Amino acid sequence: MDWLAGVAGAVLLVGMFLPWYRYPRLDVTHDAWQSLGGLAVVLALVCGLALALAVLTAVHPTAAVPIAVTSLLALVGLIGTVWLALRVAFPPSLDRSVRNLLGRSTSIRSLGASRDWGLWVGLAGCLGATAAALIGMRDEGYPRAVREASSLEIESLPAPSPEGSA
């Protein structure tokens, strides 16, 4: 499941640069970096952990490090997914941007705000990385490198004879 976390992390990373919110009356779109503030940092951490998990599982000889990264990804992913679900339900305010553009404050509803397709790509990537981490925490199998190393045959040698015995 670690490869699935890596794919979901890549989808989330690409999705963060796509338009998340569209304001047709202002002819403006915002991506995750422009509209989410602190949540964008959490989502970037989810991306990094998911991609690191895929790479570490493939190259690390023991299971300890990938298991630790999986646990951390599950925790950060749950926080990010819940926070992102709240942002899907309640889009961020553009009050400061509108005040700078129009010179007056207005409500977000009067601007005709809509959720754009990048938001759904990002949500799918975040959900996928979190789900893969939660499933991966249940997996008791070892990474491929550990399985291959444990299947090597070690030649048994007879014990040396003690010195001085007849």
Oligomer: single chain
H/E topology pattern: HEEHHHHEHH
**Domain module tally:** 1
Distance linking N and C termini: 60 Å
Helical coverage, percent range: 55-70%
Q: Kindly state the mean pLDDT as a whole number?
A: 82
Largest sheet, strands/sense/barrel: 3 strands, antiparallel
**SSE class:** mainly alpha
Number of strands: 3
**Treating each run of at least 4 consecutive H or I residues as one helix, how many helices?**
7
Task: Note the overall shape.
Answer: rod-shaped
Strand percentage lies at under 5%
Uncertain segments are none
Rg, please? Answer: 25 Å
Strands across the major sheet, in which order? 2-1-3
In short:
By secondary structure, the chain is mostly helical.
Protein model, in words:
The chain has one domain (2-142). It has helices spanning 2-15, 32-35, 38-59, 64-89, 95-102, 117-138, 144-150, and strands at 21-23, 28-30, 114-115. 30% of the residues are buried. The model has no long low-confidence stretch (mean pLDDT 82). It has seven helices and three strands; from the N terminus they run αββααααβαα. The N and C termini lie far apart (60 Å). The chain is mainly α. The protein has a three-stranded antiparallel beta sheet with strand order 2-1-3.
